[in-house]
Structures are given as C-alpha cells and as structure tokens.
Amino acid sequence: MAGSAESTEVRRKPFDTSGAGAAIERWTLRSGPIEAVVLTLGATLHAVTAPDRSGSRAQVLLSSDDLGAVLGPARHYGTTVGRYANRIAGSRITLDGEDHRLAPTGNGVTLHGGPDGFASRIWQAEEIPGGVRLQLHSPDGDQGFPGALDVSVSYTLAAATLSIDYRAVTTRPTVVNLTNHAYFNLAGEGSGDVLGHLLTLDADRYTPADERQIPLGPYEPVAGTPFDFTTARPVGKGINDDHPQLRGPGGYDHNWVLRARPADGTPARAAFLEDPGSGRTLEVLTTEPGVQVYTANNFQGAVTGARGVPYGPYAGIALETQHHPDSPHQPSYPSTVLRPGEEFRSTTVLRFGVS
C-alpha cells in the first residue's frame, strides 16, 4: 500500500470529558489529508475526513459526538459488529449436533450478535505502527454463543488507505462473522442523501430475503433487476422500483455475493462508490465473500450530525463486508464455523480518492 506507518500520526484522548463517557477513548489517525477517528466503544470507526477534487476536506461518515446518541440511536454507526453480523433465523444454531439458543433481538431473529453485542462493549486499545489495535474477550455463552472468543480489530492508515484487520480464536466450536457498520456520504455528512452517488459492486448475484431479511436460500442473478450494480449507476436509480425485494425494506438492505476472492487471502475489490459533485471516491476491497448494502431506509432524524442536520432516509450508505446472513442455516453458503486451534482472519480495505 502507498505510504508508511512512520508517516501516520496516532493520538489518543478521552471521547467525552463530562464524566459519563470518560472510559471511552478517541484514537485519531492522520496520514496526509486523510484523518480517521476510532472509538474504543464498539471498536468504532467514528469519523473519516477526506479531501474533494479541489482539496476541500469534509467528514464523510454519519456520526455524532453526543454521548446519548452514541449509546442510543447511533449505537451501530461505524461499530465492529459481532459475534455474528447481520441476521440468524430463529435465534438458534446447531453445532456438532448441539443446539444453542441465542439472545433474540426481535422479529424472530438474532441481529448483529444479540442485544448486547460487540458494538456495546468497551474494547482495550493499544498503539501499533500506523494505527491502533483493539481487543475484546467474549466469554463462553455470551449472548448464547458457545466458546470463549478472543477478538482483535486493527485499524491502520497509510496515505489514503485505511485497513481493517480482524482476528479471532475460540475455546469451543462457534460461529463468527465480523463487519464494520460505517455509513458513508462522500459529499460530507449532513449534506443530503446519497441517491446520486454512483455505486459499482463486483457481484453478479445476490441473496433475496424474506420479510425478516433472512435469505431465502439460493443466490439469484442481478441481471435485469434493480440489484444490478455490475457497472456504475446511481444508488437511487432503481430504489423505488416496484420489485418484491424492495417493497418491504423501502430500499436496499441486501447481501450481494461477491465474485471469487483470491485463494491467497489478498483483499479484492468489492465496491466502488463515487460522489460526482465532490469527486470523492471510495474503493472497498475485502477477503469476505459478501457485502451487505444498506441505504439507511428507516432513518427518521433521530441522530443529528456535526453540521446540525438530522439524518433522514438515504442520508448514508453502509457497505458491510461479511459472510452471508444466516449462514449457520444455509449449508450451501461459505461456512462461518470457527474451531479451537483455528484463527479467524478477515481484512477489509477502504481506499479514498478523487475522480
């Protein structure tokens, strides 16, 4: 990657000095014109500042510095989601013939690891070359998941490239699916919706879902549907089409099946996002087999960002690199099982630029 760890400035300070949030740390990584802010609460990517084509810098993630919002309606903004990102049907899994009931989150599913998932934990942080490593111990039975899990998430910044590296080991067979839940608006947070952003996805198939957003099973081709982003098209071009998969969620909240990843574990491109107005671009590369695209369909202004603008529908777009939702119940999907003696490894790269 361009740049070097030596050229990255790393700073640490409390997130909130009022007392209530004093235990939460804010880590700031700075390399050239790019700045990334990471919180120890939820191992969260809290903010990214990037220049436009004229060099003007703006914060391009939806976020809030209000502690009440961070603990409330913005609790998943930019967080590391686990132990299992996305949805597991029936709030139960079976591993080696043993049934495990998971903590439910409603609607007949366990979403994002349960009601007290990794997003709500304070992680332990340490500086590493070019960034910060955050670590968490999840005990056996946490939210119903078997096995004690030790997890680390490392954020490193070099020039315009932010790398997110996930690692995990377990004491018992379990399932693991980690992602980052940042919402991007490349025009700058609070600048309106992202419907005019141009999106490309390196995916020829997706996983249609039921009303709970649980995959129905077989992959379906995107060709000829509003889910075809194989070439760049505006996010909003087909978002209101009368398609059965769009009526329920009111927009995109689906998993795309990425083209085959390199066997050597090198991250490959998953998505490319561009804001034509500012010229800012984001290239997403990953080792993961899928990406969940969520267009903030249900946002109703509960969170107000730094510009003082409440976030409404389509205020940002999440590009959550992941294994597929409900994989424990879908034998044809790539496995999310992690066993003792193995190490879960996953890398996602965010590369910022201008057109």
UniProtKB/TrEMBL annotation:
Pathway assignment: Carbohydrate metabolism; hexose metabolism
Catalytic activity: alpha-D-glucose = beta-D-glucose
UniProt-listed Enzyme Commission number(s): 5.1.3.3
Binding locations of beta-D-galactose: N86, R87, H181, A182, Y183, D253
InterPro entries given in the database record: Ald1_epimerase_CS (IPR018052), Aldose_1-epimerase (IPR015443), Aldose_1/G6P_1-epimerase (IPR008183), Gal_mutarotase_sf_dom (IPR011013), Galactose_mutarotase-like (IPR047215), GH-type_carb-bd (IPR014718)
Biological-process GO terms, alphabetical: galactose catabolic process via UDP-galactose, Leloir pathway; glucose metabolic process
Broad class of enzyme this protein falls into: isomerase
Active site: H181 (proton donor), E320 (proton acceptor)
Pfam families noted in UniProt: Aldose_epim (PF01263)
Gene Ontology cellular component terms for the protein in this record: cytoplasm
Highest rank taxon of the organism: Bacteria
Xref: SUPFAM superfamilies: Galactose mutarotase-like
Keywords: Carbohydrate metabolism, Isomerase
Gene Ontology MF term list: aldose 1-epimerase activity; carbohydrate binding
Alphabetized PANTHER family for the sequence: ALDOSE-1-EPIMERASE, GALACTOSE MUTAROTASE
Similarity section: Belongs to the aldose epimerase family.
Identification of the protein by name: Aldose 1-epimerase
Protein species of origin: Kitasatospora atroaurantiaca
